[in-house]
Structure formats: C-alpha cells, structure tokens
Amino acid sequence: MYPHLPDDISVEWLVREARAGNQQAADRLFYLFYRKICHFFLRDLHVSVEMAEELVQDTFEKAWRKLPTLQNCLVFESWLYTIARNVGFDHVRKLKRRKDPTPLDPEFDLADSSPPVESLVLAEMHIREMWNAMPPRQRECLYLFYMENLTMLEISARLQLGADTVKVYISKARMTLRDGLYASEEDVNDVKSKRCRA
C-alpha cells in the first residue's frame, strides 16, 4: 500500500516525518491507528459505526493541526488518545444540548433542582483539567494501565521505566483524578447554593 515506506518503520520516525510535511508518513499513521481509535469510540461512547468513523476523522483532523506542537514523538499514541477523548467529550456535550427539554409541571420548584447535564459538564471540565495538568509520564502510565489493560511490568518494559516508578506514577495519577472528582462535586454544590440564594 505504501511502496516508498518500508513496513518496519517506527511510529516515532513516522511522526517526525509527518510533522515535517511527509504526507505518506501521515497516511501510514492514520492507517496504523484508525482501527484503534474507532474501537475506542465504539467501546466507550456506544455510538454507531458511522458515528465512530466521523469521530475518528475529527480526531485525526485535530491531531494533524496540533502535530507541530507535539514535542516528544514517543508519546504520539497517548497524545492521540487524549485528543480522541476530548472529541468524545465534545460529542457527548452536543448530544445533551440537542435533547428537547422535558415539559415541567407549573408548580415545579426550579430552585430545588440542578440539571444533571450541568453536573456532568462541570465534572468533565474538572477531570479534563486534572488530566491535562498531570505530568505526561503519569498520564501515560495511567492510560496504559486502564485503557490498554497493560500490567505494570508491561508498562515498565514499554516505557523503559522501573516497575516501582510505574507504580508510583499510577498512584499519583489516581490521587490527582480523585482530587479532581471531589473538586467537581464541591463546585456543583456551590452552584446549587448560589442558585438557591439568588
């Protein structure tokens, strides 16, 4: 399919070449990761195949635009999955906005309720902030552990880190996300209390 590129080229080389404007290298990266990213959307968002394919296209379009900003070619895959997750979040938010509002009873007290969509969006925003603020190695270890289902030893081998280091990174990343979840709950409660006082 790619007569000018050998089959055993590394992802790192392809990323460097794609960043330099080599279209064949960009096409090969798309070919290598298309099915993985499509499976990610099918599994995590439970969307149709057609919608998953659209989301993959969106993911790669954003990736190509942001590729010049990727400093470390070794983390291309986890970086690509981060973009895919953000595309997924955007898709979920758009779906929630499109839903017709439920007819309300005239006597329904708005001050006593908080739309679940608001809570979800606030939680997503906090988690995404925590994720983006996390050191790249912690983020990568956590992703490989939970999303790729790799063992700590497998992560250690892939990233060329000590097993204890991987364990510490995953533990710190979990604590960071847990703090983000608690923070999001506090913000939701703050929004509710402000609404009640208004």
From TrEMBL:
<keyword id="KW-0804">Transcription</keyword>
<dbReference type="InterPro" id="IPR013324">
    <property type="entry name" value="RNA_pol_sigma_r3/r4-like"/>
</dbReference>
<feature type="domain" description="RNA polymerase sigma-70 region 2">
    <location>
        <begin position="46"/>
        <end position="98"/>
    </location>
</feature>
<dbReference type="GO" id="GO:0006352">
    <property type="term" value="P:DNA-templated transcription initiation"/>
</dbReference>
<dbReference type="Pfam" id="PF08281">
    <property type="entry name" value="Sigma70_r4_2"/>
</dbReference>
<protein>
    <submittedName>
        <fullName>RNA polymerase sigma-70 factor</fullName>
    </submittedName>
</protein>
<feature type="domain" description="RNA polymerase sigma factor 70 region 4 type 2">
    <location>
        <begin position="127"/>
        <end position="177"/>
    </location>
</feature>
<dbReference type="InterPro" id="IPR007627">
    <property type="entry name" value="RNA_pol_sigma70_r2"/>
</dbReference>
<keyword id="KW-0805">Transcription regulation</keyword>
<dbReference type="InterPro" id="IPR014284">
    <property type="entry name" value="RNA_pol_sigma-70_dom"/>
</dbReference>
<comment type="similarity">
    <text>Belongs to the sigma-70 factor family. ECF subfamily.</text>
</comment>
<dbReference type="InterPro" id="IPR039425">
    <property type="entry name" value="RNA_pol_sigma-70-like"/>
</dbReference>
<dbReference type="Pfam" id="PF04542">
    <property type="entry name" value="Sigma70_r2"/>
</dbReference>
<dbReference type="InterPro" id="IPR013249">
    <property type="entry name" value="RNA_pol_sigma70_r4_t2"/>
</dbReference>
<dbReference type="GO" id="GO:0016987">
    <property type="term" value="F:sigma factor activity"/>
</dbReference>
<dbReference type="InterPro" id="IPR036388">
    <property type="entry name" value="WH-like_DNA-bd_sf"/>
</dbReference>
<keyword id="KW-0731">Sigma factor</keyword>
<keyword id="KW-0238">DNA-binding</keyword>
<dbReference type="InterPro" id="IPR013325">
    <property type="entry name" value="RNA_pol_sigma_r2"/>
</dbReference>
<dbReference type="GO" id="GO:0003677">
    <property type="term" value="F:DNA binding"/>
</dbReference>
